[in-house]
Amino acid sequence: MIGLIFQLIGAYFVGYCCCIFLEAPANLRFRIPVIDVVGWLVYLIAVDYLQWSLPVSTYISSLVIAIMSHVFARRYREPVTVFFLPGFFTLVPGGGMYRTALAFIQAETTTGMRELGTTMFIALSIALAVFTVDSFVNVIYNNKRPKFVRKNRRLIFRKPSEK
Q1: In angstroms, how far is CA 88 from the centroid of its own chain?
Q2: pTM of the model
Q3: Which sequence spans correspond to the domains of the chain?
C-alpha cells in the first residue's frame, strides 16, 4: 500500500515537471497532474490487482486520461493537448524501447522481437484510446455525421410513406 502511494506521488511529480517543461498555464500547473495520477492509479489497479496484460491496462488507463483531458479542457477552456501530454508521460513505453534496443545490440533477437511487439502494442493502445475518445467527443459535442449522411440526409432519414 505504501508503494502504491509513493508511485502516485511520483506520478504527480512527473506530471508537474512535465507541465513546467511544456510551459503549461501557471494557474493549471497543480491541476493537470491530477490526470496523470488518476491514469496511473487505473493502470496500477489493472496490472497489479486485476492481472490484465500491459497493452489492455494501458488502453484502459489511456481512455481515462483522454476522457479526463477532454473534461478538463472544456472546464478550464484550454486546448486538450495541454492536458494530454503530461497525462501520458507515465504510460509511454520508453523502458520497453530501451530493452528492445539493448536486446538487439546484444544479439538476442527473440528477446528483442518480443520486447518490440509488447512496446508497439502499448504505444498502439495509447494511440487507439486517444483516437477513440476524440472520435466520440467529436460525434457527441459537434454532432458531426459522416459526409455521406450529411449530403444525403433527406434520402436516409425520410419516412417510409414519403416518396
Answers
A1: 6
A2: 0.80
A3: 2-155
